[in-house]
Amino acid sequence: MIRYLTLILILPLLLLAASCGEPNATLPATEHDRLNIVASFHAVQTFVEAVAGDLADVRTIVPDGASAHGFEPKAQDLLKLADADLFVINGLGIEGWADAAVQAADNATLVVLDTSDGVSLIPLDEEHDADEHDADEHDTDEHDADHDHGEYDPHIWLGLTTAQKQVENIRDALIRLDPDNRSVYEQNTARHIASLDDLLNTYRPQFEAVPNRTIVTGHAAFAYLCRDFGLTQNSVQNVYADGEPSAMQLASLIEYSREHRVKTIFAEHLASPDVSRTLADEVGATIETIYTLEAAEGKKTYLERVETNLEKILAALQP
Ligand SMILES: [Zn+2]
Q1: Residue 58 to residues 83, 291, 309, Cα–Cα distance (Å)
Q2: Are residue 139 and residue 255 in the same domain, yes or no?
Q3: Residue that is last in its domain, among 151, 181, 211
Q4: What is the CA(70)–ligand 1 centre distance, in A?
Q5: What CATH number is given to the structural domain containing 202?
Q6: CA of 240 to the centre of ligand 1 (A)
Q7: Which of 90, 115, 264, 266 could be joined to 316 by an S-S link, Cβ 3.0–4.6 Å?
Q8: How far is the CA of 93 from the centre of ligand 1 (A)?
Q9: How far is Cα 49 from Cα 39, in angstroms, rounded to an integer?
Q10: CB count, 10 Å around CB of 60?
């Protein structure tokens, strides 16, 4: 909280400095040729770009290589909001910093869009989650103080049907802001939704054909993807990616992986690779990387990364 108060106090000074140096930076939103949109983190950025196409400038708060979990914006990051027309977030508490950021930006015309609106959500298993936090021995100040742990799993951008709803929400917000370009936003959105439908239609029958549909991931990011394709997820880290399993939890993961004949342990770039490695060694599995899209990972598009994930999971489940 102290950090946010500091931001609120110093942001007006930064804005003043920015406006002195660059007179054009203070143009009101109505004089922009293109919409000025800020996305919270990478996956949200890809959705905004898919819908807006060339009609908007899109900037992102969480930088490449940083995790969306436990991120804390600096004053400079929040300057982006000061002259934006629209701020798009995933929602469900993963951007625990967003409310304070909007307050600090002090932009009376800024529209904030929570893309989780109307999405079919998966509730978190409260008991399971509490256990993991009790076992969590690291410095909790860094992660827990500034980010809300909501009652639903926030990883909706990794599910294909949930991502479709997020894209529709972005389309509706853009049409409200810029009705002249309605048809462009509608076409772009229809194209993106059709691509996601193609993936659903291609991979659903293939997953239905495999007898064992259990996957083990680094952090529990794939519940919505699993729901789309009838899979079951277990994981080394919880949905917040904050904390490693206790010795007892690791032992039960090892037992679980053996019981379900798990041959591949999926690990993300930002998850704890040591524990995943220990688990893989114990059960004789290999480690395979998987995209969470929480940060930009290489040059692949959203759709390419989702398809790569589906290919790797399918390959891992072959008998
Ligand atoms: Zn995550």
Answers
A1: 12, 22, 26
A2: no
A3: 181
A4: 10
A5: 3.40.50.1980
A6: 6
A7: 264
A8: 11
A9: 10
A10: 23
Q: DSSP state, 214?
A: E
Query: 184 alpha carbon to ligand 1 midpoint, in Å?
Result: 32
Do 200 and 175 belong together in one domain?
no
Residue from 311, 290, 310 nearest 228 by CA: 310
Give the separation between CA 47 and CA 167, rounded to whole angstroms.
6
For residue 276, give both structure tokens. 């995943």
Determine the distance separating the centroid of ligand 1 and the alpha carbon of 272, expressed in angstroms.
12
Tell how far the Cα of 242 is from the centroid of ligand 1, in angstroms: 9
pLDDT for 2-50, tens place per residue?
455 455 555 555 554 444 444 444 444 444 579 999 999 999 999 999 9
CA distance 161 to 24: 41
Residue with more model confidence, 131 or 193: 193
Q: Please report the pLDDT score of residue 246 as a whole number.
A: 85
Three-class secondary structure of residue 235 per DSSP = strand
Q: Find the 117 Cα to ligand 1 centroid distance in Å.
A: 19
Question: What pLDDT shows up at residue 147?
Answer: 41
Q: Which of 181, 211, 237 is the last residue of a domain?
A: 181
pTM of the model: 0.83
Identify the band that residue 144 occupies on the pLDDT scale cut at 50, 70 and 90: very low
Per the domain annotation, does 189 fall within a domain?
no
The environment of the single-atom ion ligand 1, i.e. residues with CB closer than 5 A, is: 221
